[in-house]
Design a protein that fits this description.
It catalyses: (R)-2-hydroxyglutarate + NAD(+) = 2-oxoglutarate + NADH + H(+). It comes from Lutispora thermophila DSM 19022. This is 2-oxoglutarate reductase. Keywords: Amino-acid biosynthesis, NAD, Oxidoreductase. One of its GO terms (biological process) is amino acid biosynthetic process. The chain folds into 2 domains: 3-98 and 283-307, 3-Layer(aba) Sandwich (Rossmann fold), CATH 3.40.50; 100-274, Rossmann fold, CATH 3.40.50. It contains 11 helices and 12 strands. Helix 10 links the parallel strand 10 and strand 11 (248-253). Helix 1 (12-20) runs parallel beside helix 11, helix 2 packs parallel to helix 3 and helix 5 packs across helix 7. It has a 7-stranded parallel β-sheet with strand order 8-7-6-9-10-11-12, sandwiched between helices. A 5-stranded parallel β-sheet has the order 2-1-3-4-5. With 313 residues, the chain is α/β, with parallel strands linked by helices. Bound molecules: 1,4-dihydronicotinamide adenine dinucleotide and 2-oxoglutaric acid.
Length: 313
């Protein structure tokens, strides 16, 4: 029987479906040292972002050779050493489409939060304050949204921003995407100079941040920065300096270099609207992710049956 480790949780209905099919499911999060021991007994590993599947885990799995498939319930594969896993004969899959709408909605929520001080109002009203005068905001209608990375989430965000009356401009390393009308392509420098709000929707691939000191300096004075992609794509120190220096009016963050982010200076900053990496945390996205994971497992299972190696399960 296929033995599956669900390390970072999975939607209940999907777990039940797999159990009904008589796969053996273990739902448990292991710290790295423990995971190195336990992983040897599993055929499939399902993770979200909390479990880091680095070389040491893959090497440990290869001692028995049982692990054949790693599934990332989500988009970003930065927590998995994908090339190394594939080189060692382990397939890696993700669920790329399931959460785009949820992340885009969170971006719009953060943007309105920043523009209207909703995050600050929530805190200060609970402290008994009535800061009506201090919280005169701005409309987002008529403002320019600059999207860095015009993939699935970037485009979903663009649609929503356009419907709210924003001018949408974008940049992408792939260049201009001619099939998307109504959104203007610019190079990065032009976009930074024109946008009132800048939002990032790029993968984290290691190395230098996409938005660092130099890029912030090129942004409009009083602009806002939103990062619902990955912590590493923004230089957090440079962002903090820019907020303190009033170069930027505010920032919204769902992701952080170090997660869980507790007591971090950015989260405690009054110009920051923050959420704890909840871009994909909606019932709908998790349901779709669960369904996709079940499909991937069934495809794999059917493939094995077709290849005549089902007896090894
Ligand atoms: N906050 C959250 O809970 C979630 C965050 N994410 C993050 O969002 C990222 C984007 O997701 P998708 O839109 O689905 O990916 P995607 O692959 O559809 O789009 C990414 C786009 O960014 C472009 N790109 C890559 N590097 C770039 C750079 N340096 N400058 C400009 N463009 C660049 C690519 O050409 C591509 O068009 C994921 O990699 C993941 O890290 C995804 C889901 C949930
Ligand atoms: O559920 C998660 O792990 C967060 C979602 C995410 O960041 C992703 O899908 O890339």
């Amino acid at each position: 029987m296929l033995k599956i480790l669900v390390a970072d949780g999975m939607e209940k209905a999907a777990v039940e479906k797999l159990k009904e099919m008589e796969f053996e499911i273990v739902e448990k999060h292991y710290e790295p040292e423990e995971l190195m021991k336990e992983i040897k007994e599993f055929d499939i590993l399902v993770v979200r972002s909390a479990t880091k599947v680095k070389k040491s885990i893959i090497d440990a799995a290869c001692e028995t050779g049982r692990l054949k498939l790693i599934i990332r319930g989500g988009v970003g594969l930065d927590n998995i050493d994908v090339d190394y896993a594939r080189a060692r004969g382990i397939m890696v899959r993700n669920t790329p489409n399931a959460s785009s709408a949820s992340v885009a909605e969170l971006v719009i929520g953060h943007m309105i939060n920043l523009a209207r001080y909703i995050h600050n109002s929530n805190i200060t009203m609970r402290q008994g304050q009535w800061n009506k005068k201090a919280y005169e905001g701005v409309e987002i209608c008529g403002k320019t949204l600059g999207i860095i990375g015009f993939g699935r989430i970037g485009r979903e965000t663009a649609k929503r921003a356009k419907a709210l009356g924003m001018n949408v401009i974008y940049t992408d390393i792939a260049g201009e995407l001619k099939e998307y009308h109504g959104y203007r392509y610019m190079d990065m420098d032009e976009l930074l100079a024109c946008a009132d709000f800048v939002t990032l929707h790029v993968p984290y691939t290691g190395g230098k941040a996409v938005i660092g000191r130099e890029e912030i300096a090129k942004m409009k004075d009083g602009a806002y920065l939103i990062n619902c992609a990955r912590g590493g794509v923004v230089d957090e120190e440079a962002l903090l300096e820019a907020l303190d220096a009033d170069k930027l009016a505010g920032a919204a963050l769902d992701v952080y270099v170090k997660e869980p982010a507790k007591d971090c200076p950015l989260c405690n900053h009054e110009k920051v609207s923050c959420t704890p990496h909840i871009g994909a945390s909606t019932m709908e996205a998790q349901e779709r992710i669960g369904e996709e994971i079940v499909e991937i497992i069934l495809d794999y299972y059917d493939g094995r049956k077709l290849n005549g190696c089902i007896e090894s399960f």
